[in-house]
Amino acid sequence: MAAVVKPHIRVVLADDHPVVRDGLAAMVNQQPDMEVVAEAGDGDEAIALYEQHRPDVMVLDLRMPKRDGVAVVQRVLEINPKACILVMTTYDGDEDIFQCLSQGAKGYLLKDAPRQEILSAIRAVSEDRPYTSSGVAAKALQRMAKPSLTQRELDVLQLVAQGRSNKDIARRLSITEGTAKTHVKAILTKLDAISRTEAVAVAHKRGLIHL
Amino acid sequence: MAAVVKPHIRVVLADDHPVVRDGLAAMVNQQPDMEVVAEAGDGDEAIALYEQHRPDVMVLDLRMPKRDGVAVVQRVLEINPKACILVMTTYDGDEDIFQCLSQGAKGYLLKDAPRQEILSAIRAVSEDRPYTSSGVAAKALQRMAKPSLTQRELDVLQLVAQGRSNKDIARRLSITEGTAKTHVKAILTKLDAISRTEAVAVAHKRGLIHL
DNA sequence: CGGCGTCTCTACCTTAAGGGGGAGCGGCGG
DNA sequence: CCGCCGCTCCCCCTTAAGGTAGAGACGCCG
User: Fold this and answer.
1) If you measure CA to C1', which residue is closest to nucleotide D8?
2) Which of A39, A93, A163, B186 has a CA that sits 20 to 30 A from residue A24's CA?
3) pLDDT at A68 over 90
4) Tens digit of each residue's pLDDT (9 = 90 or more) over B118-127
5) Spatial distance from the CA of A112 to the C1' of C24 (Å)
6) Which nucleotide lies closest to A147 by the C1' atom and the CA atom?
7) Contact, A175 CB vs strand D, < 7 Å
8) Each residue's pLDDT tens digit, B65-83
9) How far out from the chain centre does Cα A192 lie?
10) Chosen CATH of B9-142 out of 3.90.1140.10, 3.40.1190.10, 3.30.930.10, 3.40.50.2300
11) A147-206: what CATH class?
């Protein structure tokens, strides 16, 4: 076969909802310059299909069974550091998107974006141009200004969100109750919350935790 | 025009994500006996398009801007008590589905359902047969066994989930702090939680509140 | 009408949570 | 090498939260 003048953008989709995959596939396959070559329903499948098909673009849902978007981005970039990954999510408060982008995902997209935006995002990423949904850049700046939680604090926050007491948290993390309180106090300060329950609300809104 | 032997099932879709609407539309329009006649992106639009097109089936997302699924079900059934509504949601813990079903929605569906299930649900509802996603019946029974919260308790719970203190809740609801505590205590008992934070976690898991 | 559930309020008591400090220790980078 | 940061632990103190118990007012339904 001779060289094709206008090669298709080969796309792999990964989303746990069949209806979303169908929607994306319909949109993509309607384009003359795009083609869906595989669809994955969970994180493991996404990685396997990436390796198998080596697509130009991978469209990846952030929340998936077995392995979430962040982990998939990591693994795929290990396989191919030049992989073009477009991360998709439902909620714009998701903290994970920053993790994905800083790890090397080329683009980020909200699921409620209109057709045109989704398609142009795929095109941009396929040409190795970064794409970020409107407003995300602004959010990134806001986020930079706000104090970030340490890993330990995120561990504690997770347990707080489950309704655990300081004593309970201490037991689970093998630390003293006093230390647990210290972490909780740090969390309250950083999230600008008065009570642990408010901290959970704030953290959830910012996408620091997923209930 | 003569009578049609096999009339199409006319469907109106309502979902705030274009990609989901596309997916559903692609699935439905591929069927020889179905047809999407309109698509809505929010609750108000959904009601307007129902009135305008009088479809055989309305597929409705539970969480939508402007007016949520419960309100749309109510309004549409006021317009046409025989309307066939299929409610769709992402999370199976959603308490609202029971409200929709008891209000007269004909079917309930999870968004991560496979193509075949979605299509057969639409067919069932179009023939006025109820359809419920597997496991929902079981959940309904579980739910019946569990104590339900009063409206006032739900009001309090909502504020608790926002991280408000008892005193704050009392002010906002124009009651005394003691009464607020009484309500919170009732909530803790009914949800089988030790602390307010755990109550929020449990309530969120059961879909009693949306953060 | 008489009971039942809801919402309201009360008092007392125990425990957990939050605020304000200080301090030692290990790693990492200037 | 020294300082910064994260993790750990400790003190004391105030306040909020949770447990127990009782009671009055209203509306709904058998």
Assistant:
1) A179
2) A93
3) no
4) 999 999 999 9
5) 51
6) D5
7) yes
8) 998 888 999 899 989 999 9
9) 25
10) 3.40.50.2300
11) mainly alpha
